[in-house]
Amino acid sequence: MNNQQPTPVEVQLKKFTSSLDITWADGELSKIAGGNLRRHCACSGCRSRKMIGTELITDSGRIKKINLMGSTGLQIIFADGHDRGVFPWAYLHAIANGAALDYLDQ
Amino acid sequence: MNKQDVLSVLESIDNPLMEESYISLKAVNSVEVDNGLTTVGITLGAKAISLDNINSMALKAQLEAAGIGPVEVNFRSDVLAFPTINTQKHLSGVKNIVMVASGKGGVGKSTTAVNLSLALSAEGAKVGLLDADIYGPSQCAMLGVDENVKPEVVDNKFIQPIERFGIKSMSVGYLAKEKAPMIWRGSMAVRALQQLMEQTLWGDLDYLIVDMPPGTGDIQISLAQTFHVAGAVIVTTPQEIALLDARKGIEMFNKVGIPVLGICENMSTHICSSCGHEESIFGAGGAEKLAQDYTTPVLGSLPLDSRIRENVDRGLPTVVCDPMGALANAYIALANQVAAKLWKSNLSALESPKMMISEI
């Protein structure tokens, strides 16, 4: 089917360094820092704030927990309690490759 | 002839429905060669029992033509479950959740969903039908369920689906008071649907068909993201406006990572009941164009025929009302394609990634 989405094989949350390591089906390894994920959170609140231009209140990128959301992607729960962001696999892949904004513009 | 020879011949024989070899479909269950007689066991991952006999005869003939003495072929089918489905506890007996959706209303989603469900059931599958159109539930009427029939509540927690024509169905229409409109905000509607999905005692199902409300809003996205949906069937009419919206539907499913199994073109042509003239009222070839653009197949085409409408209005969908008719056959063909595409998609579906958490 027309499913050219990047497929994750392994997801590792490293709590101490607060980073996410994702191994994709083609062997590529993405290391994404928690702060990077927090900045790119695509929940409605964060997106509207970005649109208005107000600053992020907390800069904590510490990740408390990750949940698998169906086959879509990951829900990331940050240590500051922010849990509204669901990150589709393709978006995570885009963030790791510095193409997050392109993904959102699509 | 030994086992290896048989397997290598099987590699070049395609299953006609899947257009793929039995080997690459991982459908070959057993091969035994005993005293010159070869026995081949095939397990199909899709229910299409009307085709099983003829396909097994064809396979037998092809194997014998390839020089493998006398052959006996045994066909059985066991629907392949969507790989990540067993991680959802309430729905653990449901193998595949399939959404029937469109971008636009009025293209015949509910009619297609109910007839597709019945056709899948006629092909030997265990089928459930969830009416997710909570603002305008129609499955109760289409299935001809009496207004006074209410689903039984079990343990104050679960509800028993209503069985009709061999399929299990659930709808807000069964629960709400007659004719009272649902005046709900998005979040309330989403919660209500999640509960309908999770708290219905579906039991073991091969396919749970979800008749989606039109659009690409709150309800659609939340449903798509909360449940492990195996695939979506997009219903459209050939007219330009409907195709435009169908496009948005496909884009939405792509975005949330649900495989689009294909497109069902509804109301494709009209055959005049008095003179027999065939006319494409809504235009022609639109679904093919759409299918090409998104490299997704056209699963079936249904004509604009007043009988389809009359039948569901009467609570007796076409597949059960006139099972031998051309229209029922078209729905059976659609059901075969949906089952086949779902099998194929599940074969290649992504397995759940391994999740690890380390303290360092």
TrEMBL record, chain B:
Any one GO BP annotation for this protein: iron-sulfur cluster assembly
Domain MIP18 family-like: 3-61
Sorted UniProt keywords: ATP-binding, Hydrolase, Iron, Iron-sulfur, Metal-binding, Nucleotide-binding
PROSITE patterns, per database record: MRP
Pfam name, any one: ParA
GO cellular component, one term: cytosol
SUPFAM superfamilies linked to this entry: Fe-S cluster assembly (FSCA) domain-like, P-loop containing nucleoside triphosphate hydrolases
GO molecular function: 4 iron, 4 sulfur cluster binding; ATP binding; ATP hydrolysis activity; ATP-dependent FeS chaperone activity; metal ion binding
Residue sites binding ATP per the record: G103, K104, G105, G106, V107, G108, K109, S110
InterPro entries linked to this entry: FSCA_dom_sf, MIP18-like, Mrp-like_CS, Mrp/NBP35_ATP-bd, NUBPL-like, P-loop_NTPase, YlxH/NBP35
Similarity comment: Belongs to the Mrp/NBP35 ATP-binding proteins family.
UniProt cross-references to PANTHER family, sorted A to Z: IRON-SULFUR PROTEIN NUBPL
Quaternary organization: Homodimer.
Entry function: Binds and transfers iron-sulfur (Fe-S) clusters to target apoproteins. Can hydrolyze ATP.
Name this protein carries in UniProt: Iron-sulfur cluster carrier protein
Organism: marine gamma proteobacterium HTCC2143
